[in-house]
Amino acid sequence: MTFNSIFDDGNITARCKSQEKKHKAMLIHPGALGDCILTLHLCDFIKSHMRIDVLDYVGNIDHIALFPGKTVVDKTRSINSIDFSKLFIDPSEFSPDNEPKLVADLAGYDWIFNFIGDKGGNFEKNLISTLYHTTSGDVVTLGAKPPAEYAHHISKFHIDDLVNEKYAAIEAFTPPEDWKFDFEKPTINLSDSQKANGEKLLHKYLPNTDHPTIIIAPGSGSIEKNWHIDNYKQLALDLKDKKTNVLFILGPSELERMKPSEIDTLKKIAPTVSSLNTIELTELISNADVFIGNDSGVSHLSGATGISTVAIFGKTNPATYSPIGPKVKIVEQSSSAFAQYSKDAVDELVNITTEVLK
Predict the structure, then answer these.
(1) Are 87 and 65 members of one domain?
(2) What residues of the chain score a pLDDT lower than 50?
(3) Among positive and negative, which fits the CA dihedral 104, 108, 110, 112?
(4) Given this model, what pLDDT does residue 181 score?
(5) In 3D, which of 171, 187, 147 has the Cα closest to residue 51?
(6) Whole-prediction pTM value?
(7) Residue 234, H or E segment
(8) Closest Cα to residue 183, out of 42, 22, 24?
(9) Adjacent-strand bridge partners of 94
């Protein structure tokens, strides 16, 4: 063995790299499915431009369980598994010495990106002191919603908010001229095997897939965001007349709000699926030719996977809260056409969906 070969040994290089400290970050977000999906561009920015090797996401596990393996997020954890309630008290009454489990939960993170409480509030102050008990990391509290005067999308706001708070630190990692923002790229990417799982699930409800498949989710977390259900019923009937397969998806909110007779009516129009977890839902939607829905978490999910997504907006502002992705079409409707049955509104959606299918 030559002198040079000792130092050129790839195994030595690999061992050195394996011993390097991995830079870890935690993002804490207590929001709904759509809120969490709209932070994925922020997650991408953090990992790409702040030299973060491992990003853990803490939130409602029902909403974020799909992230590892499909997004830039490496690990998820239920927000209920960490007792954050202790951090709301007055800092003068809080001591990390009295909270060993909380200290252990936060130990080892170089950065914590937090969406709970106010900037400079009790929660943030106690979060900082808990992290500092073991780690010289940094805590950044970010706003859950943009101010009224903010004129861009919320996904951009999250990044702008971080940059405004920590410009110098981010610049030290990556010069601003190298900062990249691509809000149209999919943030949820499925493997072939994951798409195959969704295809099997789709065939369970739609055995005949010779025609284009349109998945419709007529609900959302807020009834005010829902296009009138009679519009969805007629839309499904009209689309079936155009030789398409239609599948309804109902979430927990719809199952609570809708009467059994209303659900039965949907089932008579088209197969209806409910009680899917977010992983099953993502895999199923990935096999649709078109997804149609309201300003809802499922619409954000569809847009983020890169599926052709038609999102219907009434009261909420799509400039700020629309699903984002490479194939998202936003349809804004007047209050009257949105909140009650409108044949003209249905015809508009039929025409738009037909164009998207071409």
Answers:
(1) yes
(2) 1-8, 12-18
(3) negative
(4) 82
(5) 171
(6) 0.91
(7) helix 229-241
(8) 42
(9) none
- Domain total in the chain: 2
Question: Whole-angstrom Cα distance, residue 104 to residue 193?
Answer: 36
pLDDT, tens digit (0-9, with 9 covering 90-100), for 168-213: 999 999 999 988 888 889 999 999 999 999 999 999 999 887 899 9
Coil, helix or strand for 24? strand
One-letter amino acid of 231: N
Q: Encoding tokens for residue 6?
A: 């000792």
pLDDT reported for residue 297: 97
pLDDT for position 228: 96
- Which of 81, 126, 131 lies closest to 106, judged by CA? 131
Check: CB of residue 153 under 8 Å from CB of residue 320. Answer: yes
Domain limits at 86? Answer: 3-178
Q: Is residue 149 part of a domain?
A: yes
Q: 40 and 168 in one domain?
A: yes
φ, ψ of residue 328 to 5 degrees: the values are -105, 130
Structure tokens, 131: 């992290």
